[in-house]
Amino acid sequence: MSAIIDTFIAPPCHDEITFLFQDDHLLVVNKPSGLLSLSGKNPQNLDSVHHRLVRLFPGCTLVHRLDFGTSGLMVVALNKAINAALSRQFSQRSVSKTYQALLCGHLAEDEGVIDAAIAKDPAQFPRMTVCPLQGKPARSRFRVIGRSHWQGQEGMEVAVTRVELTPETGRTHQLRIHCQQLGHPILGCDLYGGQVLPGAKQAERLMLHASGLAFTHPVSGEPLHVSAASPF
Hints:
There is one protein chain. Helices cover 12% and strands 34% of the residues. With 232 residues, the protein is mostly beta strands. Strands 1, 2, 3, 4, 5, 6, 9, 10, 11 and 12 form a 10-stranded mixed beta sheet that branches. A two-stranded antiparallel sheet has the order 7-8. The N and C termini lie far apart (41 Å). Residues 25-181 form the Pseudouridine synthase RsuA/RluA-like domain. It comes from Pantoea anthophila. This is RluA family pseudouridine synthase.
């Protein structure tokens, strides 16, 4: 099998990371869309959440990541012991994560569950694919917040549904590919059909935002709930 070559070069991101929680053990930050979570192998992809934060907090590490185009909440550990404790919560699925998204078209249902196993698709890197046989189990819930029209350039309108998404697992591209499975991809999603509807290609970003995060503080044992309003 031929080696996978990643040719993606991230354009400059001028938006700042904002801090929503900070103590001696961890940070919760709001990542802008268009910023890598972790620097890439290509030196042109040096700028990232980790690259910016490690200059302020030497030794900090990411507990999880968000896709390049996704904005919203990320947890950053300030030492290895905190990273291990938080990673344990993520792996045990005791961390509650919620997202907001604009989906292309108007969903008929007001809520539901998407249960579709996800696997890598080496032939179409970096895409993932739904594969019941070889994929890892993946499950997401959705709840409709509202149905409207998104205004693009030149007066072009796209029918959209604003949803709250709750992933019960944490597979790569899970919410993006699960929304595609619904038949309503996330507006602006270049990999899974979110630019197909007339006018949708004008979306300036992936309309996916990590809006809520709840977990147990690994030192105090207190529940920590952080939220960040959707920027779209």
